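Progress against Task 2.4 (sequence-to-structure conversion) is shown through the following example record, which the project officer requested during the mid-term review.
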Amino acid sequence: MSRVGKMPITVPQGVDVSITAEKISVKGSLGTLVRQVNGLVAVKNEGGKLMFTPANDSVEADAMSGTMRALVANMVNGVSKGFEKKLTLVGVGFRAQAAGSKLNLQIGFSHPVGKDMPAGITVTCPTQTEILIKGSDRQVVGQIAAEVRAIRPPEPYKGKGIRYADEKVALKETKKK
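Structure tokens generated for the chain above:
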């Protein structure tokens, strides 16, 4: 059996988990997340601990039990603490500004670039060169951060562009004559 799938998830105070035959719903202070239950996995709530077991002895069921456990653990963590991604802008004159649910970027193009945020995602700019994306759904937070980074990814010669806060950009040496 999957090692990840064997570990139970402890449900913290203030988080409600409801399990039906086809869905798992997790409700907390930061929102509600719903996920489909795979038919290869049996989910049980035993006294505040969620247990995931394969429905049969197949390799797919074993792998899916670990996957479902990790996804539901991210849901529980998301509705209780939330997830965040931090991006930094590197370049002369590069600026970011958050206006409600919209992110306005001036990143060296001839025009400003605007990016609308979906429901459940908040964006803030602590400084003009930092972007902080927060939300309860880990997948959506990561996807939005990747889409913002893809507007102007770091280039390999000077490192200018939008990068993750912990990202190291390997700079290339310029061509010599």
